[in-house]
Amino acid sequence: MDSIEVVLVMLLAVVASAYIRRVLPGSIPLPLVQIGLGALIAAQSSHGVDLEPDLFFLVFLPPLLFLDGWRIPKSGLLRDKGTILELAFGLVVFTVIGAGYLIHWLIPAMPLPVAFALAAIVSPTDPIAVSSIASSAPIPKRLMHILEGESLLNDASGLVCFRFAVAAALTGTFSLQTAALTFAWLVAAGIGAGVAVTMLITWLQRWLTRHFGEPPGSPILVNLLIPFGAYLVAERLHASGILAAVAAGITMSYVELSGHAMASTRIQRSAVWDTVQFSLNGVMFVLLGEQLPDIFHSAGMSLEESGHINRWWLLVYALAITAGLLVLRMAWVWASLRLTVFKQKVRHQPRHKINPRLLLATTLAGARGTITLAGVLTLPLMLPDGRPFPARALTIFLACSVILISLLVASIALPRLLAGMTFPAEPEEQQEEDIARRAAANAAIAAIEKTQVTLMESEACLDPEVYPQAAARVIAFYEHKLKEVDPDSEHAWRKTDYAEKELRLAALAAERRTVFDLARHDHISDEISRKLVREIDLMEARYR
Questions:
Q1: Which backbone phi and psi does 245 adopt, to 5 degrees?
Q2: Do residues 245 and 230 touch, judged by C-beta distance below 8 A?
Q3: What is the rounded radius of gyration, in angstroms, for the C-alpha atoms of the chain?
Q4: Integer CA distances (angstroms), 522 to 319, 400, 426, in order
């Protein structure tokens, strides 16, 4: 019962955090509010949460990474794949080496393999934290796509480096050849498992639907289970479950283009996934806040055992490590941009100057999050000879401190850094949207005309005059949509659209009030009321 109560309290904290963030002054990222609520729960609760890292990975990460992979724009991911791979893999290795030596120099009592382990686990950025920060800062779309792609892929490289650093701390040996081969297997098998599981489940679901029909709710539940299946299969193959979940999400986005899912299923599924994303994101950061008091206490004791009496050294170490991570990231991003400019010069392409503010924004936007927390908690308690794992509590505290400081720095600095900057519009997106709208409207008109003829020639046609009138009304709607994307009359139609939108919203609100009033007075049943209100809600969603 205690566990259930704790889960309910944390879910309530997630709900409360969304409202508290609206009340607080400034643009404080939601994760920071949730971490604060978690710390408050820990202060008021008599029993803490015993966080099992393996369970944490399984319950929280697969669905969230699956959804991020599903919803990330694929065109941006493919367009900037070179830059994303440089950040997701090259930057991680560069950070592990540079920050590892920095940490060992700052804290000589921490063995070098443990310092490398800490550097590895704080190297991956967090997609959830990045998305939250982006909601309060005007980050350009292309940069946001690069940051999202980086945060989706660098988890695997960071965790692999962490695994080998921990193994070196336990055994005292390290093999570069073994590490390279293992990394290749983790990546290849992880991606393969994610793609294979998604395709297999999708094929099986379609076969069952074709032969036995589609039970209500079944496609949504299957969709929710796919990331867990991909993650578990990859882990059984000793591959990267995280990359499997991401690959499953990206594969799902291509599967979705087949259009086999019903419209009602897509609407309901989107609402379910939004709820899952909000809940799991929030609970993760609430859990981080709930763990902080115990982590701070254990780290303080570890510091005293190493000879430091003043616990303020913990803050000094945390700030120094975070600053080192920022310097390393800025150096890598600058070198990557210089290489891009050089390639443009060699290929005689138009060259773009490096904007110092965007360079700094890219550096600060690399906030750490729950991957770091979950990974660092997997540190073993004992060495093979029975001695305690060196500086374990201090390592966990410093990793959590980097999460908090990186979130604070990004949330405070980014909105101020990017304030007042104007970014060039992305005309390709608007052109692509106009092309798609025009093609869809023309296809719809052709289908209406063909269907009209078919219906008039069928035996079920009782009144031939009905179909031309109905077709004219529907075609008029699509002709109106074609005029919307006509550049010659775009401005006038925009004004008309605004007026029509306001009138339709007012009419729909009146419809809804009337239906509710009829149901309240028992003039219609609840079932009829829900059906009509759903139709009105779906219509209203088109104009919001």
A1: -65, -40
A2: yes
A3: 27
A4: 65, 57, 53
Instruction: Give the residue from 176, 198, 196 showing the smallest Cα distance to 188.
Output: 196
Instruction: DSSP for 394-412, please give it.
Output: HHHHHHHHHHHHHHHHHHH
CB 219 within 8 A of CB 261: yes
Provide the Cα torsion 96, 101, 105, 109; round to 10°: 70
Using N-to-C axis directions, what is the helix angle for 218-236 and 53-71, rounded to 10°?
Answer: 120
Strand ranges (E), 246-318: none
Place of tokens 């390290």: 174
Measure the CA–CA gap between 362 and 359, rounded to whole angstroms.
Answer: 5
SS3 content of the chain, % helix, strand, coil (to 5): 80, 0, 20
Provide CATH code, domain 51-277+311-421: 1.20.1530.20
1 pLDDT band, cuts 50/70/90, is very low
What the block records as the tokens of 95 is 């950070």
Q: Three-state SS for 388? A: strand
- Residue of 16, 63, 1 whose CA lies nearest to 282: 16
> 248-268 b/e with 16+ CB inside 10 Å = b?
bbbbbeebeeeeebeeebeee
The owner of tokens 């999050």 is 369
Q: What is the DSSP letter of 389?
A: P
pLDDT tens digits for range 57-93: 788 888 988 888 887 777 667 777 888 888 888 899 9
* Cα-based angle 474, 479, 485 (whole degrees, multiple of 5): 140
DSSP tag of 504: H
Q: Residue 338: how many CB atoms within 10 A of its CB?
A: 11
Q: How far apart are CA 265 and CA 507, in angstroms?
A: 27
Residue from 492, 447, 495, 373 nearest 122 by CA = 373
Segments making up each domain of the chain, as ranges:
51-277+311-421, 435-483, 484-543
Question: In degrees rounded to 5, what are phi and psi of residue 388?
Answer: -60, 145
3-state secondary structure of 382: strand
CA distance 337 to 435: 33
Q: Which amino acid is at 534?
A: R
Distance of CA 211 to the CA centre of its chain: 35
**Under 8 Å between Cβ of 33 and 20:** yes
pTM listed for this prediction:
0.78
Give the Cβ contact number of residue 54 at 10 Å.
Answer: 11
pLDDT confidence of residue 2: 65
Indicate the burial class of 283 (C-beta count within 10 angstroms; 0-12, 13-18, 19 or more).
buried
Q: How far apart are CA 243 and CA 245, in angstroms?
A: 5
The per-residue pLDDT for range 295-334, each reduced to its tens digit, is 777 776 766 665 555 667 788 889 999 999 999 999 998 8
Cβ contacts of 351 within 8 Å, gap of 6 or more: 341, 344, 345
